[in-house]
Amino acid sequence: MKDEYGRTVGKIASFAMTPSGKFDAVFIEQGDGKFLRHSAENLHIDGSDLTLLSTIKSKAILSCDQIPLIWRKDQALKDLADKKKISPELYQELHSTFDQTLNQLKNDAQKVTEEVNTEISRCVQETKELTYALVNLEIEHEIGKVDDKCYETAFSLIQENIKRVQIEKSDLEFTKTKLSNNLLGDSPKVVMLEKTKVSEAPSKGFGPISTAPDLPEPPVVVYVKEIGKSSI
């Protein structure tokens, strides 16, 4: 099983089913041998393929679904009251219930937004560390400490991880925007957060690396041998 950004999570060992036969969870053996149970809510099922969504992403999807739904229900209730189809007393009772539910959902969405901000900061730092790792690999290769075969293997590995982290950061920023729109009431429609797909790994070559706006540009490395064109 992989996560939504193409990282291998582990091997599926078993499934958990409810007494009625409904799929409830999956048990995954991680690389370190530990077993973890993940709820079906955190899984994206596409035929026989299962993708593990992050807990934060699952929470965000729920918020982006429920907040506009409660908002529309409250608006429909107001329309009924304006048309004199329900009594003022009943309107106030139901409106109070919707209002309390909406406030709770917004509080939950705010907490998720804070978690998203933490993950975005992690991605920024991880991109910075991977970029410097790539530069140091280039230096060691240039002075002959790393042979061509090891260099190409390590280069592809680092570039692939840089690309995945950048995709994850963009996805988190997109999620944050949708959450903000819901909190501000700018998006009364139900918002579906799409699963990000990771494209194929880039070919060899030290091409331009897209970094976060608040990160310094990676130092320029001059090298003699051309490995190929980068797709990033």
Count of DSSP strands: 6
- Average of per-residue pLDDT values: 80
Bin the strand percentage: 5-15%
Which sheet architecture does the biggest sheet show? 3 strands, mixed
**Termini distance?**
25 Å
Structural class by helix and strand composition: alpha+beta
Order of helices and strands: EEEEEEHHH
Widest sheet, order of strands: 1-6-5
Morphology call: elongated
Radius of gyration: 24 Å
What helical percentage do the residues reach? 40-55%
- DSSP summary: helix tally: 3
**Poorly predicted tracts of residues:** 186-232
Protein architecture, described:
With 232 residues, the protein is α+β, with helices and mostly antiparallel strands. The chain has a domain at 1-53. Helices cover 52% and strands 12% of the residues. The protein contains 3 helices and 6 strands, in the order E-E-E-E-E-E-H-H-H. It has helices at 55-82, 88-142, 148-184; strands at 2-3, 11-17, 23-29, 35-39, 43-46, 49-52. Strand 3 and strand 4 form a beta hairpin. It is elongated, with a radius of gyration of 24 Å. The protein starts with a strand and ends in a 48-residue tail after the last helix. The model is unreliable at 186-232 (pLDDT under 50).
Label this structure with key terms:
single chain, 232 residues, alpha+beta, three-stranded mixed β-sheet, three-stranded antiparallel β-sheet, 52% helix, 12% strand, elongated, disordered C terminus
